[in-house]
Structure to design on (1098 residues):
């Protein structure tokens, strides 16, 4: 996030959260419909209610560091979002916030470490690993791509564009997976051929970030 | 959407408000945490028993709060486990020196919320224990899966544990008792129609005119398989066979038999299924000692039913017979 | 047809058989006359109370048989009054020296069957009296019409009269009491969907996706008018206004408030309606002293609800509070 | 029924009942559908179950006179048919049987008197009169026509044909009536434009009798 330094890392982090939140709110019905196929159809609703609360928090909060803000957001998601998504997404934000600590500057390596901490939190919390047909199946390849691109010195806009493509490709590929975690797992083989709602949400958020980054992200 | 609903987002809150108003003297409602609790809880002489789960399963669990039953229930949104906060704050409000027992239906969301809330509550010095319910035989249980679901059989765990808690039994004893009840309880259900969550406004899944879903969960999750609709007796046979073979229930066993309506099926039909199941069990030498027919754990307006069997012993029978009160009643 | 049904012609018999099996110790089933009766009836120290009506309204009335409630119910086929024979023979089987009370919902078929059966029973020397129930405000009452229908309010007549019969009150006193209860009871209902009788196999009437039927009866008869579906609160207002204005219920009155589900509507929605109705009554200075939310008098799988108000006095409240047993229970 | 004398009045009465019964059984769904429009949709079911029992009774019975047979049929309908139709149809048969008494011969005038007694029984039992949109609105004009034709010396086949037309015309005309009795009356003005199920059943039975009379009725 070095490019963002002049306008402040804090603003950049806030902006990222805001874009994610808007995406969740706008896609409520779409995400719920995806969850209805082999799940219980509430994923979009849960995520939208949670990120609505996140948007309110952003408007009111006066946290001083990216880490504090992310931990706060994690707490809000935990507190307001039920189902599987509250603990999963809440844990991810809280872990990322912990890694950020009280730092006011974040290197690219910091960001990647934060994402990895989020992933580890999700795995611990929900017991899933890659291939179980969950949002991890989009989040892990996306993080790998972002890390690889940034570490070879690519600019954020190009790196994010590649990340969005990786996330979408991976989300699409969840069609070929049998659900082994979450409510979809009850249907066993019948989950084959369906998209995982959480993975699609992750892909959709990365795409939105990639699209907007050069326009608004500065 | 053919529903008695106002703003869908307010659905759960309005329902809970209605429950509180219908039970002004006996129940207390804490809107911040979707908590319906006994007005006289916590009682320092007994363990407090708390359920969470999603909404849309009424009477489970908010209407099962009362003397000899639950001390509180803090459901999440429709079909969503409660957020950690609700569970934590409800646990604090029900804190008793004898402890708080969490009865948790085995779903990922519920497990996570209750695990985290327990950790946080324990960190604040509270005594908390967890009791998992997973009576659904439709789901294969193995180390590679998330395990069986908790469905209508949770009623028996709540009734037995609630009665024992009322008698002053210790937290550890209640966990052991609850595990024993869960261990002899088996359920399987079928859906004739899907169900429509108010916030979604359309059916969760499509089921053809001549189709039914066997082994369905209580959240509209599809089940084991889809097949052509059959007569009531054939449906009863399929559910009963799956349940009986699983434990297995054997000749000479004494059982409680429940036919649970999923929400959209009229009572009359439940008794048609009950009659056949009772007769089949009797023929197999399994004695039906207690009967439960009606709505215990629903899936909004889904048409269909589940069959639950519980193997009884004298202690369990006397706990089921012990007096209990709840927010829902006919008389 | 999405129903748990075998051969539609056998539907009622199979349901009654199921009810009998679920209540082996307390109820007796006489298949020749569709009669479900208390196992210990007739009791020579009390008046026997008998209901007829059609099937498809469960728990009304076969599941309301029990101590302090009905002594027997002999329903006809789905939505059809029982044949004269059923009523006559049931009356004989329940004959007590203190008499037999027929509680009759005001429909042509029921009136005729019970009138004829009473004449025939009296000719055989039995003591019989009739109590008509007609609580439905949707139907205009005049000398040129068949009068109001008996709908969900019959529960209160049965509960009060059943409790008084248990106390040993005389036949004439029970008639007077029942008329008094009926006189302070008012009901109106709406349907969000039609219902499907098993023998017909398709919905009784068509209701568009965005339509509801206001003032509907419990047999799928269309009601006062059809209009666009409204939010739960608006529906509750319309039902409540019609009911309140009719008696009229006034500021200072103490009432029992019932929100009755018609069969296909989940419990959660009934509580949304209940909450609003309770609040509205409180605002109007009408005190809700007793609450009833659930299925009392259904119309097979119809989605919708009715609201009933009963003006209470001390005697009536104590009769409603008196212990009662019935074939359906949750606990 | 003088033409029938050679083959026996008893057989003719039995034949009439059998034709009515078969008609009821065959039209179960149609009659129920008519009742569903503003009633509760069970008329066809009730009538069919009742007349099935009537057919059994015919097969087993050894009543010695038309009157006794009609009274027996009336009892069966009372006993087996619920709703409004059991008492209404049962009463009609019983009253007709009472007028026939133990006679073994029935004049045309006897037959008309029996029909009138049936109509009176229905009116007393159900409190309806002509114009209330019930089966009386077909049965009364049909009886008038049959009486008029027979009394001016017309043969049974021609008289019955005219009666069937009168019954059908009257049944069709129930569209213009507002129901004032029976369950349809709850809908008030909304019953306008609909056919009364009972009236249609009466017309349908007269039509069936008229059609078959010359072929099978002898
Ligand atoms: N154990 C798990 N670990 C990580 N993600 C999971 C897990 N289970 C489910 N998910 C993700 O959560 C999504 C569903 O979220 P949500 O609808 O809130 O859950 P539910 O309704 O089943 O409680 C799935 O599409 C999947 O991506
Ligand atoms: N009071 C009455 N007198 C005569 N016939 C009546 C009366 N009420 C209804 N009917 C006739 O009965 C028919 C309906 O019969 P049925 O379906 O058995 O009655 P319900 O279901 O209303 O008890 C109507 O179409 C009408 O012809
Ligand atoms: Mg979900
Ligand atoms: Mg959920
Ligand atoms: Mg009827
Ligand atoms: Mg009818």
């Amino acid at each position: 996030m070095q490019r963002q330094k002049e306008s402040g890392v804090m603003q950049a982090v806030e902006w990222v959260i805001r874009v994610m939140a808007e995406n969740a709110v706008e896609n409520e019905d779409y995400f719920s419909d995806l969850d209805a196929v082999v799940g219980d159809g509430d994923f979009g609703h849960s995520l939208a209610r949670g990120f609505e609360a996140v948007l309110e928090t952003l408007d009111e909060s006066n946290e001083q560091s990216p880490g504090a803000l992310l931990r706060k957001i994690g707490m809000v998601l935990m507190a307001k979002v039920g189902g599987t998504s509250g603990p999963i997404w809440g844990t991810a934000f809280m872990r990322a916030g912990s890694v950020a600590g009280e730092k006011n500057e974040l290197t690219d390596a910091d960001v990647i470490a934060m994402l990895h901490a989020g992933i580890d939190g999700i795995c611990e919390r929900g017991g899933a690993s890659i291939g179980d047909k969950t949002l991890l199946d989009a989040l892990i390849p996306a993080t790998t791509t972002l890390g690889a691109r940034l570490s070879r010195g690519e600019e954020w806009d190009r790196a994010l564009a590649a990340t969005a493509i990786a996330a979408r490709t991976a989300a699409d590929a969840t069609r070929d997976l049998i659900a082994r975690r979450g409510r979809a797992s009850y249907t066993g083989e019948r989950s084959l051929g369906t998209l995982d709602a959480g993975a699609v949400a992750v892909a959709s958020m990365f795409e939105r970030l990639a699209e907007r980054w050069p326009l608004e992200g500065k | 959407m053919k529903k008695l609903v106002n703003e869908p987002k307010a659905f759960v809150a309005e329902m809970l408000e209605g429950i509180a108003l219908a039970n002004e003297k006996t129940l207390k409602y804490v809107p911040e945490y979707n908590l319906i609790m006994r007005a006289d809880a916590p009682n320092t002489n007994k363990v407090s028993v708390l359920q969470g789960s999603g909404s849309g399963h009424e009477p489970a669990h908010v209407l099962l709060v009362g003397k000899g039953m639950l001390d509180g229930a803090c459901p999440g949104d429709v079909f969503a486990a409660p957020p950690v906060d609700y569970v934590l704050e409800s646990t604090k409000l029900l804190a008793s020196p004898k402890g708080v027992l969490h009865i948790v239906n085995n779903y990922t969301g519920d497990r996570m919320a209750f695990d985290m809330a327990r950790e946080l509550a324990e960190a604040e010095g509270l005594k908390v224990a967890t009791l998992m319910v997973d009576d659904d035989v439709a789901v294969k249980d193995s180390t590679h899966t998330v395990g069986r679901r908790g469905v209508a059989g949770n009623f028996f765990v709540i009734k037995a544990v609630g009665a024992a808690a009322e008698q002053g039994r210790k937290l550890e004893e209640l966990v052991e008792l609850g595990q024993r009840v869960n261990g002899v309880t088996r359920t399987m259900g079928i859906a004739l129609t899907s169900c429509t969550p108010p916030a979604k406004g359309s059916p969760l899944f499509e089921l053809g005119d001549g189709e039914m879903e066997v082994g369905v969960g209580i959240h509209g999750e599809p089940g084991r398989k889809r097949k052509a609709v059959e007569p009531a007796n054939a449906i009863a046979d399929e559910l009963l066979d799956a349940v009986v073979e699983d434990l297995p229930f054997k000749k000479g066993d004494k059982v409680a038999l429940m036919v649970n309506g999923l929400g959209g099926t009229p009572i009359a039909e439940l008794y048609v299924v009950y009659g056949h199941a009772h007769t089949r069990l009797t023929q197999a030498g399994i004695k039906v000692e207690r009967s439960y027919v009606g709505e215990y754990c629903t899936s909004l307006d889904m048409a269909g039913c589940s069959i639950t069997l519980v193997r009884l012993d004298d202690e369990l029978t006397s706990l089921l017979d012990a007096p209990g009160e709840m927010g829902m009643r006919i008389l």
Summary: Residues 197-216 of chain A form the longest helix (20 residues). Chains A and D do not touch (no CB pair under 8 Å). Confidence is low (pLDDT under 50) at residues 1-7 of chain A.
